[in-house]
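Hi all, posting the design record for the shared folder.

TITLE: backbone redesign
STEP: 1 of 1
STRUCTURE INPUT:
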């Protein structure tokens, strides 16, 4: 497959940081006075950050992309020095990539690159809480009476849930039934948790106000990387919300998979159509 990814011209970059809040994946950081792509695993290559760079230091490069290889990524990361290595390790941990983190630490050990104790601890504990991958489905199903949970109990099984924030490689996508919900649906439909969310991995977004192309690319990446068993799209009855169904269908088509899709429509008074 061909993959797009952000490239940074360090000579042009002034380290102003305007690109950072405009990177949906949190893949950019200012390190040693320059913008750095700390993990290409999290860069979707859609270029949301490009228009915010006053120096024109960011661009999208496209080429054939192989399956993600942490060892190859580390070969580039170590060239950036100690700060870039630490930031990459932090990033892997904050997004729940424990296997990749172990591979990265093994790589550093083999190359005899010392990772001080405080950096190992940082890799194990730091990261943006809002984007940190958490899978608490197992914890919830261990609770007494979980199988007969009432509608008043949350059925959310993972974090994050926003399409813009969730990393395509998140482990909770494995063999999952996916619920893609317009962000108005949980407010309108009283039975959302018990009727729609139970047993599913949730993604939330607004097809009217967010980037539809980014949504489609992200969903396509998720479908390609995992064996998704089914996709349920829950939308409001208003016309603009139908875009979420089209985005999901196009993503399934682009993934090359034949994942079954079910559509659920919710009325503006909260009734299930």
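Okay, here is what came back for every position:
SEQUENCE:
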């Amino acid at each position: 497959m061909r993959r797009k990814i952000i490239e940074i011209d360090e000579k042009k970059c002034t380290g102003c940081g305007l690109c950072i809040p405009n990177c949906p994946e949190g893949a950019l950081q200012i390190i040693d006075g320059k913008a750095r792509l700390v993990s290409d695993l999290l860069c979707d290559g859609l270029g949301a950050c490009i228009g915010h760079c006053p120096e024109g230091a960011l661009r999208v490069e496209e080429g054939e992309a192989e399956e993600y290889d942490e060892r190859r990524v580390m070969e580039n990361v170590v060239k950036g020095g100690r700060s870039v290595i630490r930031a990459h390790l932090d990033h892997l941990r904050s997004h729940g990539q424990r296997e990749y983190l172990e591979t990265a630490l093994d790589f550093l050990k083999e190359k005899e690159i010392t990772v001080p104790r405080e950096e190992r601890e940082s890799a194990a504990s730091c990261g943006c809480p809002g984007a940190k991958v958490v899978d608490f489905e197992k914890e919830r199903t261990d609770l007494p009476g979980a199988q007969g949970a009432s509608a008043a109990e949350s059925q959310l099984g993972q974090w994050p849930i926003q399409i813009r924030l969730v990393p395509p490689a998140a482990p909770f996508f494995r063999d999952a039934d996916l619920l893609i919900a317009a962000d108005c649906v949980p407010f309108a439909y009283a039975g959302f948790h018990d009727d729609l969310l139970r047993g599913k991995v949730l993604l939330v977004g607004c097809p009217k106000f967010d980037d539809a192309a980014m949504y489609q690319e992200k969903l396509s990446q998720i479908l390609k990387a995992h064996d998704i068993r089914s996709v349920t799209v829950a939308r409001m009855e208003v016309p603009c919300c139908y875009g979420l169904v089209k985005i999901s269908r196009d993503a399934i088509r682009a993934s090359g998979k034949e994942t079954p899709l079910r559509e659920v429509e919710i009325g503006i008074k909260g009734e299930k159509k």
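COMMENT: The domain at 2-125 is CATH 3.30.70.20 (Alpha-Beta Plaits).
Let me know if anyone wants the other runs.
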